[in-house]
Amino acid sequence: MTQSVQRALRVMEVLVAKAPRAVLGDIAKAAGLTPSTTYRIVQTLVQEGYATAEEGGYYQPGSRILSLAGQMVTAMDYSTYARAAMLELQEHTPETIHFGVLSGDQAHYVDKLEGRRPYRLASVVGMSLKLHCTAIGKAILAHLPPGRIAELTAPDRLVAHTRKTITDPERMATELERIRAQGFCIDDEEDRDGVRCIGAPVFDHHGQVFGGLSVSAPTMQFTLQDAISLAPVLIAAAESTSAALGAPRNRGND
Amino acid sequence: MTQSVQRALRVMEVLVAKAPRAVLGDIAKAAGLTPSTTYRIVQTLVQEGYATAEEGGYYQPGSRILSLAGQMVTAMDYSTYARAAMLELQEHTPETIHFGVLSGDQAHYVDKLEGRRPYRLASVVGMSLKLHCTAIGKAILAHLPPGRIAELTAPDRLVAHTRKTITDPERMATELERIRAQGFCIDDEEDRDGVRCIGAPVFDHHGQVFGGLSVSAPTMQFTLQDAISLAPVLIAAAESTSAALGAPRNRGND
DNA sequence: CCTCGTTATTTCGCATTGTGAAACGACATT
DNA sequence: AATGTCGTTTCACAATGCGAAATAACGAGG
User: Fold this and answer.
1) Cis (ω within 30 of 0) for the bond into A20?
2) Fewer CB near the terminus (10 Å): N or C of chain B?
């Protein structure tokens, strides 16, 4: 609608995507704008704290973005919805529990409950998750509208992260089918070697998929059987979160 | 510079500030814009994923903001700068270590190292910190330019969080003076009851204050003496982080 | 069921504002 | 010193964003 705003947002996205080394020309090209327009927009972003100009002509995304996100997480408090369910889930497993929400064509963590284990997973709240190779991601992907699924499972989107990542659209279609049938989803070292997860989808008040809960652990301590045996409690936790978000009941039969 | 972009950013900020219940009229008033302009901007934000329109006429900040912040944390990886120092610091204390960076008129966590203790602090990466009542915050505040300090320590900014929060500008001025002299800073239940922290500032390559490191723990297990005795190693960790960020040497004598 | 008041949305004419070509300047490279 | 590249500034034009006012949608009260 408002052209210059659209352009500015696009510039901001490019800035983040190319961080931490974005130079004006590249930004302009990536955003499909003329240098002068890009320059003006970037200046505005800098002035407002959404970008910073580093020496050497590099531009970086500004901390204001982090600041907004921080406030937002606090204010919206997505995690309150999942918190109770996560704590309950923690009674059933000593492993790390994550809550992630969908955001554009990826998901990201909004809450995490550390496992009662000596090791720690290298994850932080805010970290983004690919939809095609993570437990939360695939759980979400499986419940997206068919059109979006098609987009997101195009061959060039299925980037391999490990040897086990599903990169074939057909296999992915089968996988998503199974996820819908089972109600949960396994990530068997598809995102990171040595990490196995089980995930289940969470729905919002429109009945649309909103995010997912997952339990993750090193493969050595967390066999496929261990993971699968958690499915019932995980699904229960996910459903209780959906309920807290006001999701309509008994999805899957309608 | 670019009016409509400035306005859009302002609208986005208002949206976050008023989350999760912002109605068009309020947004317009808070942003100082006419309803029609606000409407157009909000529509643009919605279309781009920076806002969502909820039923009942409520607008909420969109998950795209979180998504950008998530990518940004990953891409910029502020935490790499502090990681080594934090791990080193962890050798000297079993308590929780935080790294926070300045962002506008607050700070927020970008990394956290869980303490080797049975309890956990309710903090997550991304969480925002007030500058006037947290260890990292005050460490930063003390090293801001005098003008900013004046702004940020105006009586109405010094909001009490606990009985011990410093709300008197004069006392705050003295406190900041001491922080500059000592090189570290104590938060003695000023932000949360039962939590005591020690913090030290981190500087960037311009020599400007960039963030801070802190060690936090429940007061019962972490006396004032315990905290103060950590000062040397904490300061060393902060200085090593500053060095990693390319900060000029021997600050404080010039 | 109608009326009035409030608030969101749309329309529309105007000129402010954003735009991009082109000029300029700062650097680096040869 | 000459040439090329890239960031920055200028400027004339009109497209774009603007806000007043009209309209629609909704709710509360009678």
Assistant:
1) yes
2) C
Query: What are the chain B neighbours of A124 within 8 Å (beta carbons)?
Result: 73, 79, 111-112, 125-126
Within a domain: residue A51? yes
User: Hey, what's the torsion of the CAs at A116, A70, B245, B81, to 10 degrees?
Assistant: 20
Q: Domain check: are B63 and B89 in the same one?
A: no
Place of tokens 């289940």: A200
Number of structural domains in chain A: 2
Whether residues B65 and A65 touch (CB distance < 8 A) is answered with yes
Structural domain harbouring A51: 3-67
Which of A13, A32, A67 terminates a domain? The answer is: A67
What six digits make up the tokens of A111? 């809450």
**Are residues B107 and B177 both part of a single domain?**
yes
Task: Give the position of tokens 């947002």.
Answer: A9
Task: Report the C-alpha gap between B154 and A36 in whole angstroms.
Answer: 40
Task: Tell me whether residue B253 is in a domain.
Answer: no
Residues B209/B173, Cβ–Cβ less than 8 Å: no
Answer for the pair B78, B111: CB distance below 8 angstroms, yes or no. Answer: yes
Integer Cα distance of A108 and A63 in angstroms: 19
Residue A249 belongs to a domain: no
Which H or E run contains A97? strand A96-103
Nucleotide nearest to B3 (CA to C1'): C17
- Could you tell me which of A120, A87, A215 has the C-alpha nearest to residue B112? A120
Q: What is the pLDDT of residues A226-237, one digit of tens each?
A: 999 999 999 999
**CATH code at A61?**
1.10.10.10
In a domain, B150, yes or no: yes
Q: Specify whether B103 is located in the same domain as B167.
A: yes
**Residue after which a domain boundary falls, among B28, B45, B67:** B67
Spatial distance from the CA of A53 to the C1' of C29 (Å): 25
Q: Each residue of B50-100: pLDDT tens digit?
A: 998 887 788 988 878 877 887 787 777 777 778 889 988 988 998 989 999
Q: Do B110 and A66 make contact, defined as CB atoms within 8 angstroms?
A: yes
pLDDT band at A12 (very low <50, low <70, confident <90, very high): very high
Classified as helix, coil or strand, A107 is strand
Determine the straight-line distance between the first and last CA of chain B, rounded to whole angstroms.
Answer: 36
Closest CA to B76 of A209, A252, A229, A22: A22
